[in-house]
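A sample follows:
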Amino acid sequence: MTALRLGAFLHLLGAVLVTGYTLFWVVMAVTLGREDSGDSKRLLGVVGASRWPPAGPYRFRLPLTLVGWGILGSLAMTGLFMASLYGTGFMELVSGEGAWGGGMAVKLAWFGVLLAGQVGITLRPSAAFAYLNGVATVAILLFSALLRH
């Protein structure tokens, strides 16, 4: 397997994981928002602090928000790795002058929104941050599909 194929596979795997992660938060926000007790923010905090994976020794389990950071970090690393294989620097990606054109700059801007939403989910979980992350993830997937390669 070439480095390009391995990088693409890992980046796509990360995209699937981040989509599931953000969808999980949206489902939790919608479901807990239906609670009549008004405890949805507290319950979202409990969800964020829950340990993953649910089985196995407790000391090896990570808070769900930390798992999310790991997924986002892996996406950033594989994305930069893929860009380096094409000989594209970070500034070329941001300026839209690289191999992918201006669509990459828009994708990276949405990734910044996703990172900001993840900061919110980590520090103060709320339905607004969950919805923001859901919208950002859909936008990233849309712009990724439209990028010229």
Q: What stands out?
A: Residues 14 and 75 are 6 Å apart (CA to CA). The radius of gyration is 17 Å. Residues 3-146 form one domain. Helices lie at 3-33, 40-49, 64-85, 90-95, 102-123, 127-146.
